[in-house]
TrEMBL record:
InterPro entries in the cross-refs: HMA_dom, HMA_dom_sf
CDD domains: HMA
Record's protein name: Heavy-metal-associated domain-containing protein
Residue ranges of domain HMA in the record: 1-63
Coiled-coil region: none
Gene3D superfamilies assigned: 3.30.70.100
Superkingdom in the source lineage: Bacteria
Lineage: Bacteria, Pseudomonadati, Pseudomonadota, Alphaproteobacteria, Acetobacterales
Length: 67
């Protein structure tokens, strides 16, 4: 499990964009979005470095939190 805080994820459209970007790297992973906390949890053996890179490429800075 990998958890990122994404402070500039502010709306449903942002959440959909982030989810789509992450699923592009880890299509079998379960991606959960917590808009109130601006956090994303990815379950299913994801590559944290690849996920962080994809978040940046999508225009979102993600801070990895301890899982």
């Amino acid at each position: 499990m990998v958890v990122f805080r994404v402070p500039n994820m502010r709306c449903g459209g942002c959440a959909r964009s982030v989810t789509a970007a992450l699923r592009g790297v880890a299509p079998a992973a379960e991606v959960r979005v917590d808009m109130e906390r601006r956090e994303i949890t990815i379950e299913g053996e994801p590559d944290a470095d690849a996920l962080a890179r994809v978040l940046r490429q999508a225009g979102f800075e993600g801070e990895r939190l301890a899982a």
